[in-house]
Amino acid sequence: MKTYSFRRETLIPVTLDMAWDFFTSPLNLTKITPAEMNFVVTSDFQPGTKVYPGMIITYKVSPLWGIKMNWMTEITQVKEKQYFIDEQRFGPYALWHHQHHFQETDRGVLMTDIVNYAIGWGFIGRIANSLVVAKKLEEVFDYREKVIRKIF
């Protein structure tokens, strides 16, 4: 199975506390995901809930062509105000490992997303990644960057 890597850095003009508070709330995922993906967190979280190791987050999402899917991720690691990692347990990818890193700078917080993923389906998956999936992932993170700039 072929794996792929995606990396995005976003400079956010806020304090580390503000960035960490926003991005560690599972309920804020909906705010930074394109509307056409019909992304809904289905886990029953209360406002103020923050990620912790072992946390399971469930969603409904339509990543491509309006096809609805269930997605489940687990927060596997958290180092306060430095990083957290989510890994897919069930969903559209054969592998999904997403690192969220936060580094305070003199201009705000440098947020670095590192995603390692695999599609599965052998040759068909490699074609799907080159024609659709990699571009869609890029579009999602482009959207996130625009929304983050508006929020902050």
Features:
Alpha-D-Glucose-1,6-Bisphosphate, Chain A, domain 4, alpha+beta, 39% strand, 152 residues, seven-stranded antiparallel beta sheet
Q: What CATH architecture would you give?
A: 2-Layer Sandwich
Order of the strands making up the biggest sheet: 1-7-6-5-4-3-2
Tally of helical runs: 2
Assembly type of the chains comes to single chain
The third-level CATH topology is: Alpha-D-Glucose-1,6-Bisphosphate, Chain A, domain 4
N-to-C CA distance: 39 Å
The named CATH superfamily:
START domain
What is the percent of helical residues?
25-40%
Strand tally:
7
Q: Describe it for me?
A:
There is one protein chain. With about 150 residues, the protein is α+β, with helices and mostly antiparallel strands. The protein has one domain (about 5-150): Alpha-D-Glucose-1,6-Bisphosphate, Chain A, domain 4, CATH 3.30.530.20. The protein is built from 2 helices and 7 strands. It has helices at about 15-25, 120-150, and strands spanning about 5-10, 40, 55-60, 70-80, 85-90, 95-105, 110-120. The protein has a 7-stranded antiparallel β-sheet. A hairpin with a 2-residue loop joins β6 (about 95-105) and β7 (about 110-120).
Gist of the model:
With about 150 residues, the chain is an alpha+beta fold. The chain has two helices and seven strands, in the order βαββββββα.
Secondary-structure topology with pairs:
Blueprint: E1 3-12, H1 16-23, E2 40-41, E3 56-61, E4 69-79, E5 83-90, E6 95-105, E7 108-118, H2 122-151
Antiparallel strand pairs: 1-7, 2-3, 3-4, 4-5, 5-6, 6-7
